[in-house]
């Protein structure tokens, strides 16, 4: 696509602006179809983003996107059109705002709820430095469920600064928006005269302006001009309504399904599907089983459960901390909660996992999807820290299935497990045999007379270990292969029984604080050599999963060289 200059946006007529929107929407669709990415949210925000570029002078003025699911038009209008075909590819441009990528990306985002806090911080920095320029935060209605939003609004008057908050209300997060905040916004959209709810925002110190059609430039452009004028005397909340997926009927009709799209449809099964099937199976026999999600019902495989057991299914919106405490309290009340969540979003619940769940030793099962390197969404979405931050927590059992069959077995065993449990797994995997298992035990997959043992955790690492075993046997040596399917507790009996002098660990997680560290501590003082492989002490950017895994620490050539060296030592 051609680069659309700032001058062109500023000087274009209304028909020319509408034509630009058509060009932008077509380029987004074409690129996401090829590269994957967030389709529906970006299609719906084209006119809004173009209008913001028309009304403000970025990057002197600063634009912060909450999450960043809607930033593609912004990237196309800020000198990156020629690079847009590299979207989410290794070495290409990110699918989220990134400060190091462009001066137009003033603040990096990727998780919901941060934009207003960030806007306030940028505004205070501007004020203290005596600089000019406006600060604009674009926040989706789904993020307005997040508690951090209200923490930021609570400090608006205290900070004594000015920001424009554009509430982009499309009735969706990833799944349809739910909860009290959503109901308030729905009431406001239905009022011809400002409702009682408007006063909520005014009490925070915001001038409320709305509701405007965010996909109609004739309505939106003067609304932004009026908001910009009002911004001279204080902070403003501009409430606009947009249509998620606008311009492509299939996306408009299925905004949740087309929120995020993958460029490849492989033959492998999703763990999420297995989770939904197993939870239904458990819930049919046990009325205590409940399922909880934070605005991720469909992508986590819970839609069938929600439809079959609506009274025992809870989507709390983008409120991961609340979801954890809710589960803890339901468990304290005699229920068996299953909280399904992406690894990257589980980070937001750390305090609640420590104090509310594990501190009270409650039987909550965390089903942690998208663990390990997840690929094209980049640093904010790689699930490579969960083993490290979960490992120190007392009372917690952490399980890492080798395939979907073992995952099913873990879910079934969890129904009678009396304590906090985490089961972490990647997005896709292979089916396998469903065998009963004992919590806290490892599994020997290949035993041989050798002075080397490889302990691998999770499907990605076991796939790599099997390939290394095949290669080693062709090279004239072998090793014992162990499925290290629990980080906590380690299988002390099996580890003690291993007679090998050289221990190699593989994990789909940051190397610091994970399986390798735990095994090294276990063998400390025994005279064994432990060599661990996991991900480097770095934030892993966007790219293809296998390529990133190799580049950042799970390099088969490097691991094989170590195995061959240990074999040579004898």
Characterize the structure shown.
- It contains 24 helices and 21 strands.
- The protein is of the alpha/beta class and 570 residues long.
- It has three domains: 6-261, Thiamin diphosphate (ThDP)-binding fold, Pyr/PP domains (Rossmann fold, 3-Layer(aba) Sandwich); 269-429, 3-Layer(aba) Sandwich (Rossmann fold), CATH 3.40.50.970; 443-569, Rossmann fold, CATH 3.40.50.
- The chain has a seven-stranded mixed β-sheet, sandwiched between helices.
- Helix 14 (303-308) links the parallel strand 9 (289-293) and strand 10 (313-315).
- The longest helix is centred in the N-terminal third of the chain and has 22 residues, at 14-35.
- The protein is globular.
- The N and C termini lie far apart (60 Å).
- The mean pLDDT is 93.
């Amino acid at each position: 696509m051609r680069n659309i200059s700032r001058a062109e946006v500023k000087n274009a007529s209304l028909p020319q602006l509408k034509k630009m929107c058509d060009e932008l929407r077509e380029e987004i669709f074409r690129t996401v179809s090829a590269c994957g990415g967030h389709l529906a949210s970006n299609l719906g925000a084209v006119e809004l983003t173009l209008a913001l570029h028309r009304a403000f002078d970025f990057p002197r003025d600063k634009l912060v996107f909450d999450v960043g699911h809607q930033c593609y038009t912004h990237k196309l209008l800020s000198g990156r059109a020629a690079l847009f075909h590299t979207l989410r590819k290794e070495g290409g441009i990110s699918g989220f705002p990134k400060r190091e990528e462009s001066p137009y990306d003033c603040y990096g985002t990727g998780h919901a709820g941060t934009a207003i806090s960030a806007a306030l911080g940028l505004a205070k920095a501007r004020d203290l430095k005596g600089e000019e320029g406006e600060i604009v935060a674009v926040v989706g209605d789904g993020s307005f469920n997040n508690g951090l939003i209200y923490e930021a609004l609570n400090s608006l008057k205290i900070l004594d600064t000015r920001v424009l908050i554009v509430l982009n209300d499309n009735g969706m997060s990833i799944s349809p928006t739910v909860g009290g905040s959503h109901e308030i916004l729905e009431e406001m959209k239905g009022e011809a005269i400002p409702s009682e709810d408007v006063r909520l925002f005014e009490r925070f110190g915001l001038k409320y302006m709305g509701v405007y059609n965010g996909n109609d430039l004739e309505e939106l452009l003067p609304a932004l001009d009026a908001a910009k004028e009002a911004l001279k005397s204080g902070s403003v909340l501009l409430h606009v309504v947009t249509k998620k997926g606008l311009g492509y009927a299939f996306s408009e009709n299925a905004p949740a399904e087309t929120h995020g799209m993958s460029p490849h449809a492989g033959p492998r099964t999703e763990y999420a599907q297995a989770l939904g099937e197993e939870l239904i199976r458990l819930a049919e026999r046990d009325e205590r089983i409940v399922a909880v999600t934070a605005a991720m019902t469909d992508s986590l495989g819970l839609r069938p459960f929600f439809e079959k057991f609506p009274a025992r299914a809870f989507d709390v919106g983008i409120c991961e901390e609340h979801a954890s405490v809710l589960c803890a309290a339901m468990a304290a009340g005699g229920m068996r909660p299953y909280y399904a969540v992406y690894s990257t979003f589980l980070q937001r619940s750390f305090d609640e996992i420590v104090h509310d769940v594990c501190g009270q030793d409650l039987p909550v099962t965390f089903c942690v999807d998208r663990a390990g390197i997840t690929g094209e969404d980049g640093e904010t979405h790689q699930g490579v820290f969960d083993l490290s931050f979960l490992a120190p927590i007392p009372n917690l059992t952490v399980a890492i299935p080798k395939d979907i069959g073992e995952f099913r077995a873990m879910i079934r065993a969890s129904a009678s497990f009396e304590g906090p449990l985490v089961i972490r797994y990647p997005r896709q995997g292979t089916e396998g045999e469903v065998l009963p298992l004992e919590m806290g035990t490892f599994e020997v997959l290949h035993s041989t007379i050798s002075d080397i043992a490889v302990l691998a955790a999770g499907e990605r690492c076991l796939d790599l270990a099997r390939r290394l075993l095949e290669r080693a046997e062709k090279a004239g040596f072998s090793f014992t292969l162990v499925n290290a399917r629990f980080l906590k507790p380690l299988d002390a009996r099996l580890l003690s029984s291993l007679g090998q002098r050289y221990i190699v660990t593989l994990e789909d997680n940051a190397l610091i604080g994970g399986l390798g560290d735990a095994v090294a501590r276990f063998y400390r003082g025994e005279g064994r050599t432990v060599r661990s492989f996991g991900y480097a002490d770095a934030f892993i950017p966007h790219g293809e999963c296998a390529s990133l895994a190799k580049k950042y620490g799970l390099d088969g050539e490097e691991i094989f060289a170590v195995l061959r060296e240990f074999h040579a030592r004898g």
